[in-house]
């Protein structure tokens, strides 16, 4: 936690602050975060995405803790995994617990028709669906078809989404140590652009040539770029430096 706070505050004040989003923290670790922020004395509150790892019933207490330290934390987003049978009753409780001005992000469990149905329900209740793009096992990485199916549901609902895990780099590649095929965040961005324009989404997700993706991203008009970011709203990364280095190498910053 001390390292995370130090790196976030440094990134927030550095030359690449414009590409950095929210600080993610599990609800169970809020006391640690607050302790470190008290020591750091930030000039302004840290914009926070609160990741609920204490169950839906733990949301009110976690929000109360954040609200009591408004000089240190500004709640912008609340993220949580959905139960296997995510239904309207559960999603309504999420809406009741989380203030309207805070983005709600819900991650249905991937796999099968039930997953896509869950995403539709999340969209219908005004939350952002989240897609997990990697992890510690091969099964944790969705296929290109699965990501494309996810985006197709997003498109029909005209919703925003968040991606997480496995997206350390801009471009799709195979990890030489694990053999896992990693999705790239730039692939997702270009795929979202094609989704809105009626283009080939699967080809964008499969592309491994960074120059091709970068050229397409550079060609977006301001209006198209804003439309893409309104849909692909956020993604989680363990690092600020790796994405920046990739984007600089592709001439995109």
Task: Explain this structure.
There is one protein chain. The protein has 253 residues and is an alpha/beta fold. It folds into 2 domains: 81 residues; 145 residues, no CATH class. It is 46% helix and 16% strand. The protein has 11 helices and 9 strands. The strands form 2 sheets. Strands 1-2-3-4-5-6-9 form a 7-stranded parallel sheet. A two-stranded antiparallel ribbon has the order 7-8. Helix 7 packs across helix 9 and helix 7 packs across helix 10. The longest helix has 14 residues. The protein is globular. The two termini are 29 Å apart.
Put the structure in a nutshell:
With 253 residues, the chain is of the alpha/beta class.
Query: Helical content, roughly?
Result: 40-55%
Q: Flag low-confidence runs.
A: none
Count the helices. How many?
A: 11
- Major β-sheet strand ordering: 1-2-3-4-5-6-9
Task: Estimate the strand proportion.
Answer: 15-25%
Content-based structural category = alpha/beta
Number of strands: 9
Kindly report the average pLDDT value.
94
User: What can be said about the biggest beta sheet?
Assistant: 7 strands, parallel
Coarse shape: globular
Specify Rg, calculated over alpha carbons. 18 Å
What is the string of helix and strand elements? Answer: HEHEHEHEHEHEEEHHHHEH
User: Any idea how many domains?
Assistant: 2
Distance between the termini: 29 Å
